[in-house]
Write a structure and sequence with these properties.
The protein has helices at residues 113-133, 156-165, 187-199, 214-224, 247-256, 282-294, 336-346, 388-399, 413-420, 444-451, and strands at residues 2-8, 15-19, 27-28, 30-32, 35-42, 45-53, 56-58, 65-67, 73-79, 150-151, 170-175, 180-186, 241-242, 261-265, 276-281, 314-315, 330-331, 350-354, 360-365, 406-407, 427-432, 437-443. It is an alpha+beta fold and 453 residues long.
């Protein structure tokens, strides 16, 4: 091991350091005299590093520099031992470098594939984090458009009819007494209402839903679906973000709370108006990210990696790939109730529907339950007797057939990101192309967990 001191002697109010040996994580630098310094104990090898000075990435032009395959310019350091040098660096005095355009001063030899893959991944994540950290959710909000908001006192059945007619799977609730948004009405609420009605947890005739307000249902849900000891659920504060929050914080808020979108409130609330600006969603953030990455085409190298080489997604055991979640599927003949139970228990928004050979036939999502609100279909059926095929037939009659969004293990990360940035696409089913056998799922949550991991 060799002690190495890194310094930034060119001024600035604050400075941080990151390098290939820190996993490209930022490390604070201390001010010693007139320069910022940090010391590391390093084994022999070739390393790259950069400085973050007053929020701007910089390199020391007096030291050897290199442009990597992503187009990033970094300083390069050779820590020698008794063996031959790994790479011959050109003296910094022999060539100059323009910090805006960059000039290749030297190149590194190829590293072992596994190590190279890890370095690629770290550099790519570093770039993604830089984009998301330096932009706020306000940059993603559409300049124009409309957002639906429902009064919390609207009758339950009317609320769900509106959601179906407008193609909404969730909608913010406005409380006129408090003068603010107090909650969200979702497709999951509709599922829970149907289960409560049909299991007769508490008598509530269909006709009463015409007068039963959403606010009363929200309160009743805390009682009906309490803990195993019978205790009522605790109401949690409304999860929201501010328009000044950076995109990393917004994405993590959505992921960690296992929700599909989050209300965006104004940073400076106006007591005379509604605080809600819009809803933040992962597809919106991903589309913004893809646009920014396209502005730097030289950084696309990692995006060309295939899914088979990236630790991301939920996979079937037969693929031999590790998963944090169990891959759930359902059959067309399965009771709709069991399919809904799987969705709620796994806290996922959709489940692949397969035939007896495990080949993909369709995908059933929680939002598909809204089709039962059309003409009060839910009042004329028994969930226990309805199959997934029956529910899909209703979906087709009401909304028409839809495309199943799929990919394969040989799809590139770029292809996956582009598909998932399309509005309404929240996951891709990974299939074997010739048989359509379901091998896994890549969701928006998987993508952002990987990018920000």
């Amino acid at each position: 091991m060799v002690l190495r001191r890194f310094s930034w002697p060119y001024g600035g109010r604050s400075a941080s350091f990151c390098g290939s040996f820190t996993g490209w994580r930022e490390c604070p630098m201390g001010l010693v005299g007139a320069e910022f310094q940090v010391v590391f104990d390093l084994p022999p090898g070739v390393y790259q590093y950069r400085f973050l000075v007053d929020g701007v990435w910089r390199c020391d032009e007096t030291k050897p520099c290199v442009r990597d395959e992503y187009g990033l310019i970094s300083n390069e350091l050779l820590v020698e031992n008794n063996a031959n040098p790994i790479v011959q660096l050109e003296p910094s005095s022999s060539r100059g470098i323009n910090m805006d355009e960059g000039t290749i001063l030297t190149t590194m030899p190829p590293e072992p594939s596994s190590q190279n893959s890890g370095v690629q991944r770290a550099v790519f994540r570093h770039r993604v984090s830089g984009i998301l950290l330096h932009n706020t959710i306000y940059d993603v909000v559409p300049v124009s458009g409309k957002i639906a908001v429902l009064d919390s006192e609207i009758p339950v059945n009317q609320a769900f009819k509106i959601m179906h007619d407008e193609g909404l799977s969730l909608v913010p609730l406005w409380d006129d007494n408090q003068g603010t948004i107090t909650g969200m009405l979702t497709a999951s609420d509709f599922v829970l209402i149907l289960r409560k009605l049909q299991r007769n947890i508490r008598s509530l005739a269909h006709e009463e839903l015409e007068m039963h307000p959403v606010s009363a249902w929200k309160e009743a849900k805390l009682q009906f679906y309490g803990g195993p000891d019978g205790a009522a659920m605790q109401r949690r504060p409304l999860i929201h973000v501010k328009d000044s929050d950076n995109l990393v914080d917004v994405a993590l808020t959505i992921i960690r709370n296992e929700i599909s979108s989050v209300p965006i409130f104004k940073s400076l609330p106006d007591s005379s108006g509604m605080p809600l600006l819009n809803l933040a969603t992962l597809p919106g953030i991903l589309k913004f990210l893809c646009t920014k990455l396209q502005e730097q085409p030289e950084g696309y190298s990692f995006l060309q990696n295939q899914l088979v080489s990236i630790p991301i997604g939920t996979w079937s055991p037969h693929t031999g790939r590790a998963s944090n979640r169990q891959l759930r599927t359902s059959r067309l003949s399965a009771p709709l109730n069991s399919c809904l139970d799987s969705l709620l228990e796994a806290r996922v928004s959709s489940i692949p529907i397969v035939d007896d050979n495990g080949s993909l036939r369709d995908v059933y999502s929680l939002s598909d339950i809204m089709a039962l609100a059309k003409n009060d279909v839910y009042a004329r059926i028994e969930l226990e007797q309805v199959t997934v095929q029956n529910a899909l037939d209703v979906q087709y009659q009401v909304n028409g057939r839809r495309q199943c969004h799929t990919c394969s293990q040989t799809s590139t990360l770029l292809e996956v990101l582009e598909q998932l940035s399309i509005p309404g696409v929240r996951r891709l089913v990974v299939i074997e192309p010739s048989t359509r056998f379901v091998e896994g799922i890549i969701s928006l949550r998987d993508i952002f967990t990987f990018l920000l991991g």
